[in-house]
Amino acid sequence: VTFFVDDVSVQSMDSESVELVENPGFESDLASWNSYVSGELGLGYYTLHSGARSLKVKNRTSTVSGAVQDM
Fold first, then answer.
1. What is the pLDDT of residues 29-64, one digit of tens each?
2. Predicted TM-score of the model (pTM)
3. What is the largest CA-CA distance in the chain?
4. CB 11 within 8 A of CB 17
5. 36: buried, middle or exposed (CB in 10 Å: 19+, 13-18, 0-12)?
């Protein structure tokens, strides 16, 4: 299964609500994103929510495969 992701948001629970995700809209290529278990990460240019790009994950071999980011 191939899927697309765009505009990821994870915020801290403190009063400042700091965004924890780096490059959440994939406008800086794949900076800060890595593949988890299997699958190929790429950029989507036609299937997106906002901006010019989205994350495309393809060739997954497991249901837990996808994109991850250390926080």
1. 999 999 999 999 999 998 889 899 999 999 999 999
2. 0.82
3. 40
4. yes
5. middle
